Structures are given as structure tokens and as C-alpha cells.
Sequence to fold (139 residues):
Amino acid sequence: MNERIKELLDKYWEASSSVEEEAELKFLLSRVEGFESEKQLFGLLDEMKQEEPVRVKIPKRVKGRSLAWLNWAASVAILLGSYVGWRAYERQQEEQAYREVVAALTLIQQNLSKGQEKMSKMNDLKYLSAPEDLFKTEE
Fold:
């Protein structure tokens, strides 16, 4: 009988026993001495099956009020979060546009400086009054 109990317990702990085998195991445990921890386990399981769950009823008006303000609070939080996120996105876009404009103006300034350097040679020619002065031809 002890071997059958051990066999059924092994199946039970492996979660491969059927309902009939569990009933047989409970019956055999009630007839045999020893196996105290298993007897306590099945006793506690039987007690838990017999107990009814405790149900707490919440009055409707308290439930309705608490949910109403909670819904409003959630809506306000969502709107506020959306606004803050939108402002942060807008600020980021403005900063990016500013950086692009500064980069473009820097490029224009560099190219303008290069052009002015090359035009410095032409500045020498503006004081000439006639082509003869330019080519220094003697007549």
C-alpha cells in the first residue's frame, strides 16, 4: 500500500495524475499511518474548497463618484502631457531651424570673404582713368 501511495504521490507532484488517482490517494492517505505532511496538505486543500470567497460590495454612488473624478483626472493628465510634448517638439524644431540658418549664413560669409580676396586685385584698377594707363603705352 505504501508503494502505491508513493507512486500516486510521484504522479501528483509531476502534475500527471488524474482526478480518480487523486481521490484514491486521499483515500489511501486516510487509511495509512505516516505521510503527515501530505495529509495536512490535502486537509488544507479540502478546507479551502469548502470556503466561499469573500465578496465586498462597494456602494454604487461611491463607486460612481470615484470613477468620475478619476476619469476627469486621467483626461486632464493626457491633455497636459500632450501639450508639454507638443511644446517640446516645437522647441526642438525651432532650435534645429536656427542651427541650419546659422550654418547657411556661415557658409555665405566664408564664400563672400573668398570673393572679396579675389576682387582685391580689381581694386587696383579702379584708379585708372583710361586704357592707356592700364597698358602703359607710350605714343
